[in-house]
Automatic annotation (TrEMBL):
The organism's taxonomic lineage, starting at the top: Eukaryota, Metazoa, Chordata, Craniata, Vertebrata
GO CC aspect terms: voltage-gated potassium channel complex
Main subcellular localisation: membrane
Protein name per UniProt: BTB domain-containing protein
One GO biological process term: protein homooligomerization
Transmembrane residue ranges: 169-189, 265-285, 306-324, 344-363, 375-399
Keywords: Cell membrane, Ion channel, Ion transport, Membrane, Potassium, Potassium channel, Potassium transport, Transmembrane, Transmembrane helix, Transport, Voltage-gated channel
């Protein structure tokens, strides 16, 4: 900047901010930092709405409250939506000042994705939004996040590598290796239940031990590293998938410790049964694949958001099951008309018939023989179809919305990864 005073004043919607030239030059917001390179007032007016040379004041006719929150991001590195302001309006302000959706906190990113999905902008990217009077941004001109210390920056990069598979090439490679180990572990678990497995294991005992040790070692190292890199250790411990990881890994080390102590697992009675049950918890490692596949993520997010509808569906089924099972037990066994149907000797036994009838499964192992029981069975099937269909519409719309949100998030990660590769 070759004109004006050493103190620059930014007037945003009537709120004034004073900065030195050096601060303007290194300002995290791209539009503000470009003011330092302006040599004439004409160049300045291309970036702001008006300029007062006497006071060296730059006027921006923008949302003052939104800029307050953007300044909080400049100072603290955390960017959140302004309460009471439309998410898309605030997003427009972000783009004006040179910020992108990636700078938002994760909770606000979800809100933005939901809002854009509601209005049908699921394929819209930042570069496709054109602001009046502005020129498109280039990757080199995009704003950089608030600077972190060397150690903090390295820890954050490592955390993203382990927690966000699409954040970088290294994260994708690490995720691919993790998926391979999960698949190998699942194959070993399924094969261990085959009748000929014990014979094959005795013939190649060393190979089986090595494969199992490598898989457990990988999952152990991954769990420990993710714990050390976690921002909040307590939240990490409380996460259900992390609890499953620990429960599934522990039996291996317990078994090894007991074997070294001369206590084989087969002779532990109840303790041995518990260990075998915990070993079967490894099947829940398949849930780890949700971090890498959009379909599983969509299913999990839909279930979390539709828990009220799922509870409502469960209540519908339970109420209908209680009514129909009581009537079925009465008609087939309780009235004592001729031969009694022993399959309906109790209401809990009749409840099994009700649930397989309402879901239209009909195994055929239990069925009514009286005329009243058959009429009741027809009513049970028809009402089951109606009751199960009622909440499906809400769940379906939530599933579609969740899919659009996750697809937008995946596309944003892909764009960031492409930019990283080009740089």
């Amino acid at each position: 900047m070759k004109f004006g005073k050493s103190i620059c004043v930014l007037n945003v919607g009537g709120t004034r901010y004073a900065f030195t030239r050096e601060v303007i030059r290194d300002f995290p917001l791209r539009r503000v930092s470009r003011l330092h390179a302006c040599a004439t007032e004409k160049e300045v007016l291309e970036l702001c709405d008006d300029y007062d040379r006497d006071r060296n004041e730059f006027f921006f006719d923008r949302h003052a409250q939104a800029f307050v929150f953007i300044m909080l991001y400049v100072r603290s590195g955390k960017l959140r939506f302004v309460p009471g302001v439309c998410e898309l309006s605030f997003y427009t302000e972000m783009l004006y000042w040179g910020l992108e959706s990636a700078h938002l906190d994760s909770c606000c990113q979800k809100r933005l994705d939901e809002r854009m999905s509601d209005i049908g902008l699921d394929t819209l990217s930042e570069g496709e939004i054109v602001l009046s009077g502005d020129e498109p941004q280039t990757p080199d001109e995009s704003v950089q996040p608030v600077a972190l210390t060397g150690r903090a920056k390295w820890l954050e990069k490592m955390r993203k590598t382990f927690e966000e598979p699409n954040s970088s090439i290294a994260a994708q490679l690490l995720a691919s290796v993790s998926v391979i180990f999960v698949i190998i572990s699942m194959i070993m678990l399924c094969a261990s239940t085959l009748p000929d497995w014990d014979t094959a294991k005795r013939n190649t005992v060393e190979e089986h031990r090595i494969v199992e040790a490598v898989c457990i070692g990988w999952f152990t190292a991954e769990c420990i590293l993710r714990f050390l890199l976690a921002r909040d250790k307590w939240d990490f411990i409380r996460h259900p998938l992390n609890i499953i990881d620990v429960i599934a890994i522990t039996p291996y080390y317990v078994t090894m410790a007991m074997a070294r102590a001369g206590m084989p697992g087969a002779g532990l009675g109840v303790a041995g049964v518990i260990l075998r049950v915990l070993r079967m918890m490894r099947v829940f490692w398949l849930m780890k694949l949700a971090r890498h596949f959009l379909g599983l993520q969509t299913l999990g997010l839909t279930l979390r958001r539709c828990y009220r509808e799922m509870v409502m569906l469960l209540v519908f089924v339970c109420v209908a099951m209680a009514i129909y099972s009581a009537l079925a037990q009465l008609l087939e066994h309780g009235l004592d008309l001729g031969a009694q149907n022993q399959d309906y000797a109790s209401i809990p036994a009749a409840a099994w018939w009700v649930i397989i009838s309402m879901t239209t499964v009909g195994y055929g192992d239990v069925y009514p023989v009286t005329i009243g029981g058959r009429v009741l069975g027809g009513m049970c099937v028809v009402s089951g179809i109606v009751l199960l269909a009622l909440p499906i519409t809400f769940i379906y719309h939530s599933f579609v919305q969740c899919y659009h949100e996750l697809r937008m998030r995946s596309a944003r990660y892909a764009r960031s990864l492409s930019t990283e590769m080009l740089q």
